[in-house]
């Protein structure tokens, strides 16, 4: 006897669809963690490479393990020569804020050039190798796309620079200051993973089919490109520009509420208290200092108060995107590269989720409830 399928809530809100050892977001507490460690504490005390290793292997590395891992990452961050023409074409076809589509194109080509294999046909070592290569190539590709669009030669990552420093170098051509490196590294670590968000879930669905790591990551990038997901940091800073032109952040916010417009950089699908990532980035912004930071802090206070008055039962606080844009702007990252910077970190989390999902041999295949016009009755089969 067939049973009726369960009806999931809109957006699958609060619906548990898998077990994971990677981490969790405890929204009511304003806390999230990677493995058994506080994500914010890792961001404050560890390097990006150490946390990347944690995602792949389940433990923080020893000094020797870290040295070996850094060497592997550097070796895999070099683009295969076969994709040079595709890289140039992808850069010239896309717009200034269209790096993610170019990333999908070049990653697909790089996957073919390096012989990436379906997860279904690979062992654990091969899957991990493919995952490291995809995450290592991502900043190289994004940096190259940006520089080609600017009429400059793409750069290769430097062995003497950390992952965070290399990212700033790849997009600017200059060796960054340690202050800027550490600020960006805090951001990168804090945004590696954040529960079963839309892009992570997309990656896991594709991985469940047995497809290769590149296919799963490219699907995640497509989901990530939306303005309600990874495409938000530059829009939040655009809102700050509007506020500066308007003059009064509280009145600006009230008008947004009255006109039922979403205020980018505020509110979160999971957190019902302050976003811990935003709190950390606000501290970092304060250390960097400057007029933009002062404006952001004042705007945050005014907007939070207006939203509290408009939605007393559903307080909305600044989320990670609000101060992410401020920190990146202070560190010289162009706005067109805000979302790509987010992708540089999140690809590590996607890959960890892909590897975890690949251990299951069952495809993710939910059902849908049909609500269209009644269909014709099925034809009866004669005896």
TrEMBL record:
Transmembrane segments: none
Active site residues per record: 268, 321
Coiled-coil zones: none
Official protein name in the record: Citrate synthase
Keyword Acyltransferase part of the UniProt annotation: yes
Gene Ontology annotations of biological process type: carbohydrate metabolic process; tricarboxylic acid cycle
Keyword hit for Acyltransferase: yes
PROSITE patterns, per database record: CITRATE_SYNTHASE
Keyword field: Acyltransferase, Transferase
Protein family (similarity comment): Belongs to the citrate synthase family.
Reaction equation(s) it catalyzes: oxaloacetate + acetyl-CoA + H2O = citrate + CoA + H(+)
GO CC terms in record: cytosol
Pathway(s): Carbohydrate metabolism; tricarboxylic acid cycle
A GO molecular function held by the record: citrate synthase activity
């Amino acid at each position: 006897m067939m049973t009726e399928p369960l009806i999931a809530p809109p957006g699958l809100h609060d619906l548990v669809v898998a077990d994971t050892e990677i981490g969790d977001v405890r929204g009511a507490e304003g806390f999230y963690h990677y493995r058994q460690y506080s994500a914010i504490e890792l961001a404050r005390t560890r390097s990006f490479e150490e946390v990347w290793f944690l995602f792949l292997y389940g433990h923080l590395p020893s000094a020797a393990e870290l040295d070996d891992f850094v060497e592997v990452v550097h070796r895999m961050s070099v683009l295969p020569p076969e994709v040079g023409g595709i890289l140039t074409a992808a850069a010239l076809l896309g717009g200034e804020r269209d790096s993610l589509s170019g990333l999908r194109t070049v990653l697909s080509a790089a996957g073919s050039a390096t012989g990436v294999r379906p997860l279904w046909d690979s062992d654990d070592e091969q899957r991990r190798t493919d995952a490291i290569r995809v995450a290592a190539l991502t900043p190289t590709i994004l940096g190259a796309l940006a520089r080609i669009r600017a009429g400059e030669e793409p750069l290769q990552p430097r062995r003497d620079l950390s992952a965070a420093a290399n990212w700033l170098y790849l997009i600017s051509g200059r060796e960054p200051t340690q202050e800027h490196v550490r600020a960006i590294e805090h951001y990168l670590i804090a945004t590696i993973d954040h529960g079963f968000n839309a892009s992570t879930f997309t990656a896991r669905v594709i991985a469940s089919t047995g497809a290769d790591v590149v296919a799963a990551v490219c699907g995640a990038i497509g989901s990530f490109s939306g303005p309600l997901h990874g495409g938000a940091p530059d829009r939040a800073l655009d809102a700050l520009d509007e506020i500066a032109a308007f003059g009064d952040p509280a009145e600006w916010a009230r008008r947004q509420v009255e006109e039922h417009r979403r205020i980018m950089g505020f509110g979160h699908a999971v957190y019902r208290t302050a976003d811990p990532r935003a709190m950390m980035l606000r501290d970092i912004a304060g250390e960097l200092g400057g007029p933009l930071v002062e404006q952001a802090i004042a705007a945050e206070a005014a907007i939070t108060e207006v939203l509290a008055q408009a939605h007393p039962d559903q307080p909305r606080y600044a989320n990670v995107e609000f101060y992410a844009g401020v920190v990146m702007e202070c560190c010289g990252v162009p706005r067109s590269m805000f979302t790509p910077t987010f992708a540089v970190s999140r690809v590590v989390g996607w890959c960890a989720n892909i590897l975890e999902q690949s251990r299951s041999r069952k495809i993710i295949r939910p059902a849908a409830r049909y609500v269209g016009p009644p269909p014709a009755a099925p034809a009866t089969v004669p005896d």
